[in-house]
Amino acid sequence: MGRLPSCFTLVAAIVVVVAGSLTLGDEPKGWHLAGRSPEDYVVDLERDVARPGMSAVLKSHVPEPADFGTLMQSFGAGPYRGERIRMTGQVKAIVVEGWAGLWMRVDAAQDHTLHLDNMADRPIKGSHDWTEYSIVLDVPTHSRKIAFGILLSGRGEVWLDDVSFERVGNEVPTTGLKYDRPPSNLDFEE
Questions:
Q1: Residues 6+ apart with CB under 8 A from 70
Q2: Could you tell me how many helices (H) and strands (E) the chain has, helices first?
Q3: What is the Cα 185 distance to its own chain's centre?
Q4: C-alpha 109, offset from chain centre
Q5: What's the rounded Cα separation, in Å, for the pair 2 and 46?
Q6: Which of 24, 72, 160, 186 is least surrounded by CB atoms within 10 angstroms?
Q7: CA 93 to chain CA mean position, Å
Q8: If DSSP states are collapsed to H, E and C, what string results for 40-109?
Q9: pLDDT 10s per residue in the chain (190 long)?
Q10: Is there a contact between 160 and 150 (Cβ–Cβ < 8 Å)?
Q11: What is the pTM of this model?
Q12: Do 68 and 111 touch, CB atoms closer than 8 A?
């Protein structure tokens, strides 16, 4: 058998690096692994023939994860203050036994949560091919930070690709938990 061309060796080396699991501290550039039990999850970067380019994969690597893991990042809210924004991402699920979801959180000073949507009311479960999901939240003028990512609670795998943010008008309804409601039924009589 003849010697392989040098370009083949380079491609093989890239595949080996890409196919290995990334753990805490070794995540894709700009992202980090977090959650209540991040040690129970790993991140892979993989090519999928159904989508061009690289995708991130968050997956459990223990038989019974203690809690959830998330691949996430955050950025300053400045450019979006006073706006309504939509975060959209492409997600693929493989045998998600608990639940998964995109999530976005808008925080004020001292990480006080102003708005949050983690798709708990519309979880991703089971196995699904690439599907577009969206989250829409208001970013109040006193917002400091926007955090976002994908979470997995329990066994399975979720793939994430092509995350984007856009400003939308007030005609687009918000999603997720509402923190601006007054307290109710304080005497438990209702």
A1: 33, 34, 35, 38, 58, 103, 149, 150, 151, 152
A2: 1, 9
A3: 34
A4: 23
A5: 30
A6: 186
A7: 12
A8: HEEEEEEEECCEEEEEEEEEECCCCCCCEEEEEEEEECHHHCCEEEEEEEEEEEEEEEEEEEEEEEEECH
A9: 444 333 333 333 223 333 345 554 457 889 999 999 999 999 988 876 567 888 999 999 999 999 999 999 999 999 999 999 999 999 999 999 999 999 999 999 888 999 999 999 999 999 999 999 999 999 999 999 999 999 999 999 999 999 999 999 999 999 976 655 677 777 777 7
A10: yes
A11: 0.80
A12: no
Residues 77, 45: Cα–Cα separation, whole Å: 28
Sorted by where each starts, the structural domains of the chain and their CATH numbers stand as 24-168 (2.60.120.260)
Q: What tokens does 178 get?
A: 């509402």
CB 86 within 8 A of CB 173: no
